[in-house]
Write a structure and sequence with these properties.
By secondary structure, this protein is mainly α. Among the domains are: 65 residues, DNA polymerase, domain 1, CATH 1.10.150.280; 64 residues, Photosystem II 12 kDa extrinsic protein (DNA polymerase, domain 1, Orthogonal Bundle), CATH 1.10.150. The chain is built from 9 helices and 6 strands; from the N terminus they run αβααααβββαβαααβ.
Length: 186
């Protein structure tokens, strides 16, 4: 009986996309092996997800997938290194995770200011002239969304404004909001 209750509680618990492995991600509707691997790769490259909208930047994840999983995911903190365990080494040395929060705060350098989006590599991107590779310089646009933009542009002509990207399949409000600083039409 206790095992049965535990199984039900586990099934009802949200999947933390910042700590889940591929098997756990595949329990979500619409997430198969390739989308699970894309989520893991994106998380590895870009860090933890903060909200559902962040998942929209993952190749293969679009509005319908987000709608299907919105009540089944959580966005807990990224897994922390255990005290005394090796972390990323610096110049051949073995670094250890701090043993206390106070030690971690002392050892953590102040963050550098992030560059403005317009100075990011590849910005600005003219969505009316860029090829698939160029479109992938837009934040949240990978190969799949770039192909969708090109197909839409071929079928409907040039975009009058960057806001016109919302008509492209797979481009939702979150993706559109993330790319406006980098997008141009002239």
């Amino acid at each position: 009986m206790l095992a049965w209750l535990f199984l039900i509680a586990s099934a009802l618990a949200a999947v933390d996309v910042n700590t889940a492995d591929a098997t756990a991600l595949e329990t979500l509707p619409g997430i198969g092996p390739s989308k699970a691997e894309a989520i893991l790769a994106y998380r590895q490259e870009h860090g933890p997800f903060k909200s559902l909208e962040d998942l929209d930047a993952v190749n293969g994840i679009g509005p319908s997938t987000l709608a299907n999983i919105k009540d089944m995911v959580s966005f807990g903190a990224a897994p922390a290194a255990q005290a005394g365990t090796p972390i990323a080494p610096v110049k051949g040395e073995t670094a250890l995770a701090p043993k206390s929060t106070k030690e971690a705060v002392k050892a953590t350098p102040a963050p550098e200011a992030a560059p403005a989006a317009s100075s990011a590599g590849g910005c600005p991107v003219n969505i009316n002239t860029a090829d698939a590779s160029g479109l992938q310089h837009l934040p949240g646009v990978g190969a799949t969304k770039a192909a969708a933009i090109l197909a839409y542009r071929t079928d409907h002509g040039a975009f009058a404004a960057c806001s016109g990207l919302d008509a492209v399949n797979g481009i939702g409000p979150a993706t559109l909001a993330g790319l406006t600083d980098c997008c141009v039409v002239k």
